[in-house]
Structures
1.
Amino acid sequence: MIGFLLFQFKPMWIVNLFGAESDLYNEFAIKCFRIFLLLCFLNGFQTVASIFVQQIEKPVKALILSLPRQIVFLIPLAILLPVFLGVDGVLWAGPAADALAFILAAVIIIYEMKVLKTKEA
């Protein structure tokens, strides 16, 4: 969460670590940080969901939860979105992949929680 807040509200602190070469460079770097990492705080839920599903002995679902952001969503979106949004499409692929991976993890967790409750009863 601290990283998210830094990237959104004080991105120049991070940009300066790599060199503040010009105003154009700084402007583009800030835009990249703010867009690409917009929903990065959702990634923690996906990791926790994967561990939870693994612990309830659902290894296939755990594997499914560990791959979607990078492989299933991010790569295709990074190829597809620039067709419609130009260079910004590459930047928006990150938040879109984060959101889709979060939704997938939430659906699987909700389903598994219902299954666990029915086994309890």
2.
Amino acid sequence: MVLSLQGRFARDKDATTTRKVKSFFFQAEEYHTDLKGDKGNGKRLRGRVSLDILAFELSKLVFGTKRMAPGDCCRPPPPSKYEGQGVEEKWHGVDVYTTGSPSSSSAVVFICDIYGWEVPQTRYLADRLAASGHYVVVADFLDKDYFCSPNPDDEYEGLPEWLDKHSKPQAIDRASRIIETLRGKGVKKIGVMGNCWGAKITISLLFGDKGVDAAVMNHPSFLTIDEVKAVKVPLAIHAARIDFVTTPEMAKEYEDILASSLQPETRTNSYVKIFEGADHGWTTRYDDNDETACQRAEEAHADTIAFFHKHLHPPAADTVTEI
């Protein structure tokens, strides 16, 4: 992401911002030298900022908070009257929303974005997946500490500190335990879906033998080139045309990497789709009263359902029901 931002910044003429960005790039180079790769993502190292926070700060410098598209990244979704059809439980001390049949042969672990697992639009998408035959688990990896800026004039204020507080390794460990639990219940195929912040957790589950068979990322945040190169399972990335976090140029770069993957399953079964007119968060942050926004979200939902149906269901697929 840092390199992609550097290329985008080359078109900016502001000298003061140039000096600031060069300083951030210097920190990024030192950070990578010390870590010898991306192993320290999501942590602090001898007082240096994490790479996730660094990328966010660079984004603000390059694009400016006043120039970001409305709704980018941090604005919570509008109210919705939708009531989830699942139940709330506790797994390994973590609150989860489960929906669908526990006896299904396939399951999806849904790692949601920074405004949490209780959002009605998030639970609607989970219920849609359950209606297509999967057992779906939406976990609260944020311990009810959802992000909300304290400054009404700057929806991003406090985000770097919030990102630093929510440990990526802890979330990965919790997700891995949920996957192990599902395997213990006899689930044969498991998919993972990550939205925004959740995509950063999701991608770390796709490198090796983590028990994941396929994954979907909606409007992902803070992915690195090395992470995308390391993916070993079929992956669908749904990106927005209007997004400063994962720009269309970055999404195209991810597409090229997946298309040239050394893993046959990844190379032949992955795709990247850019949704025209969509901005970051559109799949679960739409207004129920906005017909165009709902249609755009439904398109992404349908693509997600089709992808998981292809890669998780056995030939004699479970019956799809309407909700």
3.
Amino acid sequence: MSRRALAAVVLIAGLAGCSSDDASTNSTPAPGQDSGTDAVGTDAGGAAGDGATAKDGSQDGPKPEGGAGKDGGGGQGGAPDGGDAATEAEADAPAGPPTVLFPRTSIEASELAILVNDDDPQSVAVADYYQKARGVPPANVIHVKAPLANNWPQADFIAAKVQVDSTVPAGVQAYAISWTKPYLVDCMSVVSAFALGFDTKYCNTKGGCQPTAAVDYYDSDSTHPFTDHQIRPAMMLVGADTDKSKAVIDKGAAADATFPTGDGYFLRTTDTARSVRYPDFQSTVQEWTHADGLTLQYLDNSGGTGSNVIENKSNVLFYLTGLASVPSIDTLQYLPGAVADHLTSYGGQVPTSGQMSIAKWLEAGATASFGTVVEPCNYQQKFPVASKLLHHYFRGETILEAYWKSVHWPGEGNFAGEPLAKPWGSKASFAADTLTIETTILRPNVTYELRSAPAATGPWTVVVAGIVVTQYQFKTITHQPATAAFYKLVEAGQP
């Protein structure tokens, strides 16, 4: 039967923990390295995968970058030696939409545990809603008893942490915390206390301005944070009430596979002390200003001749700034998956603070935010680094992972929002014997290749070689005729 005559079928299956050359064989990842693949079955004339729309949400996707012959892969393109053998293998494959395997780029819902405070009705309701919304296994819902107060005293917290550690299922890599209070464990944020374990090295106990301990998860390539780094990054499902927390969850789930292109705003304000991140803001915008990049703006009002804020903007994807309180955030329309934060001392106190709480960003429509719960001073290492955040988020990581990887000294900071929001990644579509892959996961200056096989176990043959990008960007890869049952995108030289 011709593939053109096939009814549309979409098959999506995560193969976490499987080696890229044998989907049926488990392997243990080396520290800092990705392991496993995501398997996506394309449909005839449709699309499937991490993305369901073109990169800007329209029907016009990112444009391919040339390539030799029929295979537009960028770089060298074309089929290498052995292409005839690949064609013969494909010709023998059964008709049907192919399954496409992509490198693993993030944790999955099955690897997330939800912490619920049984003494807090809002926490119970939010945990139940989130578990169902994201398909988190019921066994991954862990019950604790915490005070309905801002602070969770260290001794009481440690007892609860011991209980959680003894209960959490094997394989869980991260936490979603379903309450808004307590947000503090003496001098640490509650998310860092659960992620790292309570330790005064992660917070300032000496007074004044002091550095705190670094975490080696910063800018890591790992997709197994607990396996590789012995931490379980956490994020709070913050809301002043249950409905506000549910709205954050809905916004995060709506972000998945949307492939947005912008807009992002990075502001240097007249508040000099709170604008210390501006050099990274500048370089981040410069790095992404290219074809198939993101639409970002650096706005410098350090001289006071303009405005310290943006107003009445739509399609806001990033808004990073430095002020004690940010006016007009409710005049903005935020895209699902949007990240917004302001460098100030007490933004991580939720849902209210003497300064502006990060809960206000979420109420305004952002999907995730970050702020500190005790006086951090303006050490840049205690706040998100925009360049790192965008690198990891764009390459298909969840906002939980990307945000955590952008903060080098996270002990005093609260991460709030919907942990599994994942706007970018890879998607595949099939039409008229042509396989089209649209992806954002490629690392700059790393060579990739597309391989085909008649079965998930192989044998694998390269059909598109020399796939290279020189910067972070949306990338289209095509292969025709695509008649094999299985394809996978891998780094050249990998199994």
